[in-house]
């Protein structure tokens, strides 16, 4: 059997991973109509529908989801083969992770891994936009979600429960939940639902005016502002584990709100035999339990 056109395969993989023809077009430097045409041609060639097309985006069919998993693994093998061809040594282990998790949990622990496994070159990629949850050029990733990603192996690391944190001097001003209205609220624009969810669970959603909150692009910046004593930020456990242990940050209130998600170490099942990936996976899982 002859292979389907490579351009059609690339268009489908990008559209499926990003969830839209527009995003796929930007990635592949073509027009959205070209992506749509290539995917339709591929569907005609295969004789199956890969997407259910809706006004608010693309939904993979069961056949499309299964095909995507195989294609992503195939593209990853092509990337790895190319790296081996270009380089004179083993390729680096590329691991994807969100910028806040990478900055505040993973990177501080990497020296321990490097000391234990000096022969394994780990490279972090924090360009996670559109990765659902893996990019073709990643060997593995640490991602936030339910843990159910078709075609991927997922290993639980830690929960994503929400709770506020602040510097000790700010905490001294917070003797009751209502006192949150008297201090600056530090909010991450990338997670606008965090503060409303926690305030609702605390029963004081009407007491704090979030429209006056100081906004930052990512949780890492809001947490740094909290460390500097500028106000109260919303945190998840791995982001502030080290700061809480050192006393740089404190939890002014004990309430932690589960949001039904967690962080998982994910990789393709075909990578199970990769000794470097297995070593890093086992180390990450153990580090998450410390």
CATH class of the largest domain: Alpha Beta
Could you say which structural class the secondary elements and strand pairing correspond to?
A: alpha/beta
Query: Superfamily at the CATH H level of the largest domain?
Result: Periplasmic binding protein-like II
Report the portion of residues in β strands: 15-25%
User: What is the CA–CA distance across the termini?
Assistant: 51 Å
Question: For the report, how would you describe the main beta sheet?
Answer: 5 strands, mixed
Q: What structural keywords apply?
A:
290 residues; Arc Repressor Mutant, subunit A; D-Maltodextrin-Binding Protein, domain 2; 3 domains; 43% helix; five-stranded mixed sheet
Write up what this structure looks like.
The chain is of the alpha/beta class. The mean pLDDT is 88. Helix 7 links the parallel strand 8 and strand 9. A five-stranded mixed β-sheet has the order 4-3-5-11-6. Strands 7-10-8-9 form a four-stranded mixed β-sheet. The chain has three domains: 77 residues, Arc Repressor Mutant, subunit A (Orthogonal Bundle); 98 residues, 3-Layer(aba) Sandwich (D-Maltodextrin-Binding Protein, domain 2), CATH 3.40.190.10; 85 residues, D-Maltodextrin-Binding Protein, domain 2 (3-Layer(aba) Sandwich), CATH 3.40.190.10. The longest helix is centred in the N-terminal third of the chain and has 25 residues. It contains ten helices and eleven strands.
């Amino acid at each position: 059997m002859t292979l389907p056109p490579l351009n059609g395969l690339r268009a489908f993989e990008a559209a499926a991973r990003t969830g839209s023809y527009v995003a796929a077009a930007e990635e592949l430097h073509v027009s959205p109509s070209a992506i749509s045409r290539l995917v339709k041609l591929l569907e005609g060639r295969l004789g199956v529908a890969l997407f259910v097309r809706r006004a608010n985006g693309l939904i993979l069919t069961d056949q499309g989801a299964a095909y995507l998993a195989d294609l992503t693994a195939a593209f990853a093998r092509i990337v790895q083969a190319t790296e081996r061809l270009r380089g004179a040594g083993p390729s680096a282990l590329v691991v994807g992770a969100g910028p806040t998790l990478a900055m505040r949990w993973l990177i501080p622990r990497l020296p321990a891994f490097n000391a234990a496994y000096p022969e394994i070159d780990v490279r972090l990629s924090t360009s996670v936009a559109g990765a659902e949850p893996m990019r073709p050029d990643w060997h593995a990733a640490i991602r936030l979600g339910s843990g159910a990603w078709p075609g991927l192996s997922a290993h639980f690391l830690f929960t994503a429960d929400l709770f506020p944190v602040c510097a000790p001097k700010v905490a001294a001003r917070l003797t009751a939940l209502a006192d949150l209205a008297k201090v600056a609220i530090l909010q991450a624009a990338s997670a606008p639902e965090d503060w409303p969810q926690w305030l609702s669970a605390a029963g004081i959603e009407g007491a704090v005016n979030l429209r006056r909150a100081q906004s930052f692009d990512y949780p890492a910046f809001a947490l740094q502002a909290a460390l500097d004593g500028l106000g109260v930020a919303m945190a998840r456990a791995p982001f502030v584990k080290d700061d809480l242990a050192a006393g740089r940050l404190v939890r002014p209130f004990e309430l932690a709100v589960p949001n039904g998600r967690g962080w998982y170490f994910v990789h393709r099942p075909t990578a199970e035999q990769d000794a470097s990936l297995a070593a890093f996976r086992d180390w990450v899982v153990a580090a998450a339990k410390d």
